[in-house]
Amino acid sequence: MRYSCIVLDDELLARRGIEDYIAKTSYLEHKKSFGDPEEALRYLNLEKVDVLFLDIQMPDINGFEFLSKLKQEINIIFTTAHREFALEGF
What does the pLDDT read at residue 47? Predict the structure, then answer.
């Protein structure tokens, strides 16, 4: 079984790192990556995916606020370079 996934992170290098991880993981299928939360939200309103790699700290909206706007249930893997968000991410 393969799980479709997308990446939402405002930092290009972080997106590329996650994309590299996905490419090396046989059960993950990378559908698309986004640097803009609104663009990702529009995509998710049209497409169903299994997993969202979601950055917690973004300029205009944080990952938790983004989650509150989702209309579909989706498995979330929080990604962040900020350890102060680790506990809240769990």
Answer: 95
